[in-house]
Amino acid sequence: MKRPSSLATLNDRTAGKKRPDLSAEAKAAAELVRAAKDQGLSLTGPAGLLKQLTKTVLEAALNEEMTDRLGCAEHEPDGAGSGNIPNGTRSRTVLDRQHRPGRLW
C-alpha cells in the first residue's frame, strides 16, 4: 500500500479550513518582498533586501540600546553636563608606537 506524501496529507487536513490572518510583521515582510521584486532588487546577496534589512534593524537596535543606557537620544541636550551624551561619532584617533595619530574607523 502506497503511503501519501506528507504534503498531500497536510493539504488534506487543511483543505476547506480558512487560513489565519497574517500578522502585521508578516504583511510588512510580504510588502517589502513585493516592492523589492518590483524594483528588480535581489532578495539575497551583497546588495540584496535581506542584507539591507538586517543592517537597518541592527543599527536601529543598537541606537535604541545606546539611548536606553545613556538616558537620552543622540544629540539630545538632556544629558548635557553629565558626560553621557551620545554624539553620533564612532571614529577614534589613537597614537601608534611612533606617536603618530591614526584613525580606527
UniProtKB/TrEMBL annotation:
Residues 1-23, 68-105 are annotated as: Disordered. Keywords: DNA recombination, DNA-binding, Transposition. The keyword Zinc does not apply. It holds the Pfam family Transposase_mut. One of its GO terms (molecular function) is transposase activity. Residues 14-23, 68-78 have a biased composition (Basic and acidic residues). GO terms for biological process: DNA transposition. The keyword Nucleotide-binding does not apply. It comes from the Bacteria. Residues 1-12 have a biased composition (Polar residues). Belongs to the transposase mutator family. Required for the transposition of the insertion element. This is Mutator family transposase. It comes from Salinispora arenicola.
